Amino acid sequence: MTDSVLHFDRVAIELGGRQILSPVELTVKRGEFVCVIGPSGCGKTTLLRAAAGFVTPSGGSVRRKGAPITGPSREVAFVFQDYGRALLPWRTVQANVSLALEAANVPAAERPARIAHVLRTVGLQAHAQKFPAQLSGGMQQRVQIARCLAQRPDVMLMDEPFGALDAMTRETLQDELARLVREEGLTVMFVTHDLEEALYLGDRVIALRSNPTPELPSLAALIDVPLPQPRDQLSTKEHPEFLRLRRELYHYLGH
């Protein structure tokens, strides 16, 4: 497991007396893009929060690079679905990205170059002095991703980051994210309700089930996605293997 970045060792989580996750055994390897699907309330976000150190398992443990996770780390970036609340409205794009560097005590003299680099990376260099209210939803989500990249994480945890966006913006950001992951060598766990999004982005797809029991634990399926890279919004989604996997995984969404 030398290439293991995240390891969930029989992780179980109870919240409010309810079993949310029942022993999850999973390893996420370096550079891997793992998508998590499942019906509402099955524990997708809870699994992500345990990986971030926001939630302590009731049983088992989560390890990052072999060490137990005991709390949040700057090596792990978390991208929230609600980009509007994730950004400070009184700060410009540049100043919002700067938050990550300020929290890491990066010297003020080093910040402009790092901010400029990540804004170029996400295509926002021309909008550095704008405020969030002056940006579209897709651009606001890019700001949040840029802020995460600024902290130079090893792991990116993403909780339905494109769920509130229109279809065209969503597809554009999917392609930009895939490019960033390849270029930056990031390890990603990505929660989504959209099965096509999971198959388009993921190297593997994890399906969770609701109301787990000892006989039927949370992890319902773990599927490899052997589709060629880089992927294309048209040809990938017409690929016979894409269609086969979509059919195989469809019932895990609770339809």
TrEMBL record:
Transmembrane segments: none annotated. The keyword Cell membrane applies. Residues 6-235 form the ABC transporter domain. SUPFAM superfamilies: P-loop containing nucleoside triphosphate hydrolases (SSF52540). InterPro entries: AAA+_ATPase, ABC_transporter-like_ATP-bd, ABC_transporter-like_CS, ABC_transporter_ATP-bind, P-loop_NTPase. GO terms for molecular function: ATP binding. Gene3D superfamilies: P-loop containing nucleotide triphosphate hydrolases. The keyword ATP-binding applies. This is NitT/TauT family transport system ATP-binding protein. Belongs to the ABC transporter superfamily. It comes from Hydrogenophaga laconesensis. Keywords: ATP-binding, Cell membrane, Membrane, Nucleotide-binding, Transport. PANTHER family: ALIPHATIC SULFONATES IMPORT ATP-BINDING PROTEIN SSUB, TAURINE IMPORT ATP-BINDING PROTEIN-RELATED. The lineage of its organism: Bacteria, Pseudomonadati, Pseudomonadota, Betaproteobacteria, Burkholderiales.
